[in-house]
Design goal:
The protein is mostly helical. It has helices at 18-27, 40-51, 67-73, 87-112, 114-117, 152-175, 182-187, 205-212, 221-224, 229-257; strands at 78-83, 129-136, 140-141, 149-150, 197-199.
Length: 260
């Protein structure tokens, strides 16, 4: 594992606290016994970060609009939206365009609540900023010696996602003040009209990565697998593509967050 990188695995047991947290979100302003619950998750993450000198804490949230995600989202500095070029992601972006501004209003009320401000674990007063969206799990094809691009079927979904992002989502985020100043995106080469990362289909590399406990871009086909010949060449192209995609995306994210 890379030095300085710490992983805290999720646990299904956390979902057992969903209803308790939802109640606390609604009633903590009237029941002081619940005042420490809304700020507890952020407090725990902050303690872990301080104890291990962590610069970035990345939370991989489940695809739900429940109280736990609402809490994690509204106590974060920023957020990234991972999507796929399909119908469900298009629907999800529209749902987020309606939901995130509501969460933003709730977060402002929670942060301004005297009971939550005076809690042992105060609720954080912050509005998370949109860093961008990533697209993954699609097929690419090279035509006429050009750089590989999404196949026509996937490109249609790319176009639809971009349309929803550029209209409904960004308009909603602007209204909710969840966008950074335009010059910050420009300086980081991370325009909101583009995706932060585009990571194509990984096929059998996912199974291999899980088996050897390595990220896809760190797989050494010669040492880690029995793939040879044409298959190895195809997989190496994908590995290189993934590595470049993540590297470029990470550079944009660091450039954005360094400006906070």
């Amino acid at each position: 594992m890379r030095p300085g990188l710490f992983l805290l695995p999720g646990h299904v047991g956390l979902s057992e606290y969903e209803s308790q947290l939802a109640v606390a979100h609604e009633l903590s302003n009237t029941l002081s016994a619940l005042q420490n619950i809304p700020g507890a998750l952020y407090h725990a993450i902050s303690l872990a970060g301080a104890a291990n000198d962590i610069d970035y804490a990345l939370v991989d949230m489940s695809p739900s609009l429940g109280a736990i995600n609402q809490n994690l989202f509204m106590t974060s500095d920023s957020f990234i939206l991972p999507i796929a070029p399909d119908l469900f992601s298009s629907m999800a972006l529209r749902s987020l365009a309606r939901t995130l501004p509501k969460w933003g209003e709730w977060g402002k009320k929670a942060a301004s609540n005297l009971i939550l401000r005076e809690a042992d674990y105060p609720f954080r007063q912050i509005t998370p900023a949109y860093l961008g969206a990533t697209v993954n799990n699609f097929r690419k094809r090279a035509r006429g010696g050009e750089e590989a691009k999404p196949t026509m079927a996937f490109q249609r979904w790319f176009d639809r996602l971009a349309e929803v992002r550029n209209t409904e989502l960004l308009q909603a985020l602007e209204t909710a003040r969840m966008l950074l100043p335009a010059e910050m995106y420009e300086k980081a080469n991370a325009s909101t009209n583009q995706f932060l990362m585009e990571i194509g289909s990984l096929d059998g590399l996912i199974a291999t990565a899980q088996e050897i406990a390595k990220p896809v871009f760190a797989i050494d086909l010669e040492r880690d697998t029995s793939f040879r010949g044409g298959i190895a060449e195809t997989y190496q192209t994908k590995i290189d593509d993934v590595g470049n995609g993540f590297r470029q995306g990470a550079e944009k994210i660091i450039a954005l967050t360094d400006q906070f």
